[in-house]
Amino acid sequence: MKLTVKEIVKLLNVSERTVYRWINSASIPVHKINDRYSFNRVEVLEWATANRIPVKPEIFAEPESKNLPSLSDAIEAGGIFYRITGKDKESVLQSIVEQIRFPEEVDAEFLLQVLLAREALGSTGIGNGIAIPHPRNPIVMHIPKPMITLCFLEIPIDFGAIDGRPVDTVFMLVSPTVRAHLHLLSRLAYALKTDEWRQTLSEQGNREEILGKLRTIEAQWEGK
User: Does domain 2-60 have CATH number 1.20.58?
Assistant: First the structure.
């Protein structure tokens, strides 16, 4: 979903002057097409999360969102793993890929290479010890439903995160469709701005605590 300058002003609750200052300083991720600025919703969410800039829930609203999976269901499908080993980014990502039970038709080695290629373009470490490795351009995987695999590392590693802090918590996203990929990535970025859930993650809470608090947050999004 592409956003305009005016939509960024509304969703981040800042002035147009602030947005153009971010653009001129090459701070906010932006694309210029025919002398007009355009913003990718997911890129802005990742950037806002890393820079601790408040956003409104409307930033991840999209048509037919009721047909898309919830964040908690995707994490439950992908699994939560503890004490993942690895001495660097590549070995950690390999360990994570090896944990996931993919269907036989999924090429796990190909997925690993795609993830590494994405990291070569720029780190997915968003700060606060968290990374969200995913392809820069969503790829279609032969899986029945989207999965987000949450992993806690045995030893924090340098991920090249924006704040320079070593990463100890990794969310890896794999999706069968582009829409689901973008939907879940944006919701995850927003959920990570919630202090209570982020605290549970930093304490490496058990599966029930992590999913339970997340479902409470999702119910609040839906106004339940």
Answer: no
CA angle at residue 175 from 169 to 181, to 5 degrees?
Answer: 80
Model pTM above 0.85: no
Q: In the prediction, which pLDDT does 181 show?
A: 84
Spatial neighbors of 67 by CB under 8 A, at least 6 apart, are: none
Active site residues: 134
CB contact burial 5-18 (16+ within 10 A = b; e otherwise): bebbbebbeeeeee
Query: How far are the Cα atoms of 95, 123, 157 from residue 87, in angstroms, in the given order?
Result: 10, 17, 7
The pair of structure tokens assigned to 84 is 């993942």
Q: Could you give the CA distance from residue 193 to residue 55 in angstroms, rounded to a whole number? A: 9
Q: How confident is the model at residue 131 (pLDDT cuts 50, 70, 90)?
A: very high
Q: Round to whole Å and give the CA distance between 165 and 157.
A: 9
Query: What pLDDT is attached to residue 129?
Result: 94
- pLDDT > 60? residue 71: yes
Instruction: Give me 26's structure tokens.
Output: 């090459």
- Going by the DSSP 8-state scheme, the letter that residue 67 receives in this structure is G
Mapped onto helix, strand or coil, the DSSP state of residue 8 is helix
Query: Got the DSSP string for 21-50?
Result: HHHHTT-S--EEETTEEEEEHHHHHHHHHH
The CATH T-level fold of domain 65-221 is Mannitol-specific EII; Chain A (3.40.930)
